[in-house]
């Protein structure tokens, strides 16, 4: 299939109807493209802003082929897409992100092995399949350590922190899901991430580095620019660019990293799609991660992202909705984004707020004083 750029009125298929798909669709619609979304939830967040939604499970081969035959290009908004089903539709429609990248990033064991092969710094780890494995391999890794399922984890799900030997018993249920990764805990000072984009012509562009804070393993705030030294900033960009090239990326990729006290960077995780920590780009940059992703997958040249103003992004989870709704009338600087999810649940990502500012510390203090996020 030709990789020439797709013209407006061409159709983009999106597998996944959540908030990332929604924001992809909004960017694509602004550029004149038509959108078909596949998602099992009727009136999904992405479906609400698209031309059509196919209501079906992500591994429904017939529905995926239907999506493929009606789309000129297909993208996905999350990693837990059925690999074989995606490989099947690659025969009939262009899928720029491809199946190789998906296979690497949806399996922590493959991802870590791949990062090692690229000489990327990662935490020491071991693959474990049973209790005996854990007890043997923890001797080399030491406490604290983190046991992670190889597949299917997100927002801290599928993880258990082992602080001492007595914790092993409580962590064993994770092994029901298959092989796991036992990973050394890195004593980090900061968590950072960077979004990189690459198109089929090989053009690579990176976004500014964000500094992230997680609460209960869910992203709470992202602050841009990250408060790291110039060497660390340059290294983060270099790592992202290296991975984009090695993976033959087409689209955007988020790279999450730990920063230690000495300034060393350890790559923690890859996400082959737009990322929660990149939401600030909608208002704070000359191009958003979503528009850059669409440009990459339709074969257009990429724009070099520029940070227009420092920013703070804060997530709105289910327990924050009532407080945000009451307070938003008092804060003119809040860019409030809601995702159109019908059911409000605790710890469910319902939206986010971005605030442009010359004083990110003052904004973080203001957010704290609202007591919404306590």
Automatic annotation (TrEMBL):
Key words, A-Z: ATP-binding, Ligase, Lyase, Nucleotide-binding, Purine biosynthesis
An individual GO BP term: 'de novo' IMP biosynthetic process
GO cellular component terms given for this protein: cytosol
EC number: 6.3.4.18
Pfam families recorded: ATP-grasp (PF02222), PurK_C (PF17769), RS_preATP-grasp-like (PF22660)
Residue ranges constituting the ATP-grasp domain according to the UniProt record: 112-298
Keyword Methyltransferase set for record: no
InterPro entries, alphabetized: ATP-grasp, ATP-grasp_carboxylate-amine, ATP_grasp_subdomain_1, PreATP-grasp_dom_sf, PurK, PurK_C, PurT/PurK_preATP-grasp, Rudment_hybrid_motif
Assembly notes: Homodimer.
Family: Belongs to the PurK/PurT family.
Known role: Catalyzes the ATP-dependent conversion of 5-aminoimidazole ribonucleotide (AIR) and HCO(3)- to N5-carboxyaminoimidazole ribonucleotide (N5-CAIR).
Protein's UniProt name: N5-carboxyaminoimidazole ribonucleotide synthase
């Amino acid at each position: 299939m030709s990789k020439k750029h797709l013209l407006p009125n061409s159709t983009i298929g999106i597998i996944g109807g959540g908030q990332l798909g929604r924001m992809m669709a909004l960017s694509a619609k602004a550029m004149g493209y038509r959108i078909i979304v596949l998602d099992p939830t009727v009136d999904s967040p992405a479906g609400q802003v698209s031309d059509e939604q196919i209501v079906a499970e992500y591994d429904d081969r017939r529905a995926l082929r239907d999506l493929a035959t009606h789309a000129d290009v297909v993208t996905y908004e999350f990693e837990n897409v059925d690999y074989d089903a995606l490989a099947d539709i690659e025969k009939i429609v262009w899928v720029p992100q491809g199946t190789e990248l998906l296979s690497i990033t949806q399996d922590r064991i493959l991802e870590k092995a791949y990062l090692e092969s690229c000489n990327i710094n990662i935490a020491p780890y071991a693959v474990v399949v049973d209790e005996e494995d854990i007890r043997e391999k923890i001797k080399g890794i030491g406490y604290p350590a983190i046991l992670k399922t190889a597949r299917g984890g997100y927002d801290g799900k599928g993880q258990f922190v082992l602080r001492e030997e007595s914790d092993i018993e409580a962590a064993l249920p994770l092994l029901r899901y298959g092989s796991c990764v036992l990973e050394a805990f890195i004593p980090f000072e900061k968590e950072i991430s960077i979004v990189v984009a690459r198109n089929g012509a090989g053009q690579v562009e990176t976004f500014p580095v964000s500094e992230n804070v997680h609460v209960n393993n869910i992203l709470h705030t992202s602050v841009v620019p990250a408060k790291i030294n110039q060497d660390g900033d340059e290294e983060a960009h270099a790592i992202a660019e290296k991975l984009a090239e090695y993976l033959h990326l087409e689209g955007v990729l988020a790279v999450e990293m730990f920063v230690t006290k000495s300034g060393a960077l350890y790559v923690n995780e890859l996400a082959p799609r737009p990322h929660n920590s990149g939401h600030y780009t909608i208002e704070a940059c000359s191009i958003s991660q979503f528009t850059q992703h669409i440009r990459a997958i339709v074969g257009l040249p990429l724009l070099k992202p520029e940070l227009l103003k420092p920013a703070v992004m804060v997530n709105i989870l289910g327990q924050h909705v009532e407080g945000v709704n009451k307070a938003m009338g008092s804060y003119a600087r809040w860019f409030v984004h809601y995702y159109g999810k019908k059911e409000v649940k605790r710890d469910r990502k319902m939206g986010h707020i971005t605030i442009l500012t010359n004083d990110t510390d003052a904004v973080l203090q203001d957010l704290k004083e609202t007591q919404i996020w306590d």
